[in-house]
Amino acid sequence: MRREKTSPGHMAWTRFRTNTAAVTGLMFIILTILISVFCYILSPDSTPDSNDQHLELAARKPGFKVNMLHVVKNGVIRYESFFHRIFLGSESPFENIPFLDYHFEGDKIILREYSDPGDPGKFYKEINLADVVYPLAVNKPVVTKNDSITFFLADGTTKSNDIASLQRIITDDHIEMKRFILGTDCLGRDLLSRILTGTRVSLSVGFISVFISLVIGLTLGAAAGYYRGWTDNLIQWIINVVWSIPTLLLVIAITMAIGRGFWQVFIAVGLSMWVEVARIVRGQVLSLREKEFIEAARALGFRNSRILLKHIIPNVMDQVVVIAAANFASAILMEAGLSFLGIGVQPPTPSWGSMIKDHYGYIIVDKAYLAIIPGMAIMLLVLAFTMVGNGLRDALDVKGNTNS
């Protein structure tokens, strides 16, 4: 006969998965995590920080298309490992040149450079065919004789190719009609790529900041609640002092003290969020330390560290998990606010907050989507964590579920 699972964890999961809003939020968070891990694989612009700029393409609307010529960069091309490309992106081996149309003249390709659709485009650019297809050595001559081109490669070797073959290679492999699904930002960068890469910043700040706050809050809260006396008085005094300072002001002060940057934001946000964790944990530990099983552990001669780690902290983790979900949403909002103020993640690293800052002026014109899209991304991710936090609270509320 099969026994029904009645463990607290299984019962909590059963209650959680019946909450449609919480499960939807969890699925969205999982999707966002996958996007953040593989953002450089998914992004049309896989360069570091998705920072391939084309000022002539600035602030183009979603669905915008343009012809691109991929010109191989001169010098020895460096190919990154697979894991490097996943986590840090990779420099493009090409210089991408937008153009309106082109034609060949002997050993050169003539581009009519891109300009606004209403402008016929008056500037032309000449590029040697070999320079488009191969990485040439710097300051080495390219010799054209009859229908053949002889040139020096960056690795020191010499190569020849006929003009017709180079023209065919360029037409087939080096000219592309590129589409920007969400358009471009104010510097001509692919907006979709910046949004996808920005998920990594928001989730990283959330995970690391919440981890820092949990380590500090659990340690101080458990110590205050268990040892009481002067330890409790001292920690309570620290909590009250930190609690009296407005959160955003505290984060700004910490950021100014340790500097502005990617890792500094993690530390600043984490150091501002531990107070609530410590207060909740302290209250729970004060109640648990008087329970019979803790008295029994003391009677058996267990050390205080073992009682805290093995018996008390596991019994407060349900409350801590709920707080962590709420703090995750707060950390994302706080990072976005800091980046909007210019003291968070620094350019060119993409951050949803800094993207809003760069484009909020477009709200009064017909390109408000440049600020609305990253704002919607922040809203959806925060909403997802809020729904998961509410679902966890309901699922772990044993008394409430028992009464109902």
What does this structure look like?
The chain folds into two domains: 8-34 and 192-403, MetI-like (MetI-like fold), CATH 1.10.3720.10; 64-180, no CATH class. Helices cover 58% and strands 13% of the residues. It has helices at residues 8-17, 20-37, 39-42, 82-88, 129-133, 163-174, 191-227, 229-243, 247-258, 262-272, 274-288, 292-299, 304-341, 352-359, 369-396, 398-403; strands at 64-72, 94-105, 108-113, 124-128, 143-145, 148-152, 158-162, 175-180. Strands 4-3-2-1-8 form a five-stranded antiparallel beta sheet. A three-stranded antiparallel beta sheet has the order 5-6-7. A hairpin with a 5-residue loop joins β6 (148-152) and β7. The chain is elongated. The model has no long low-confidence stretch (mean pLDDT 87).
End-to-end CA span: 29 Å
Strand order of the largest sheet: 4-3-2-1-8
Low-confidence stretches at least 5 residues in length (pLDDT < 50)?
A: none
Order of helices and strands: HHHEHEEEHEEEHEHHHHHHHHHH
CATH architecture of the largest domain: Orthogonal Bundle
The CATH homologous superfamily of the largest domain is named MetI-like
- What's the CATH C level of the largest domain? Mainly Alpha
**What count of domains describes the coordinates?**
2
Give a count of the beta strands, DSSP E runs of length 2 or more.
Answer: 8
Radius of gyration: 29 Å
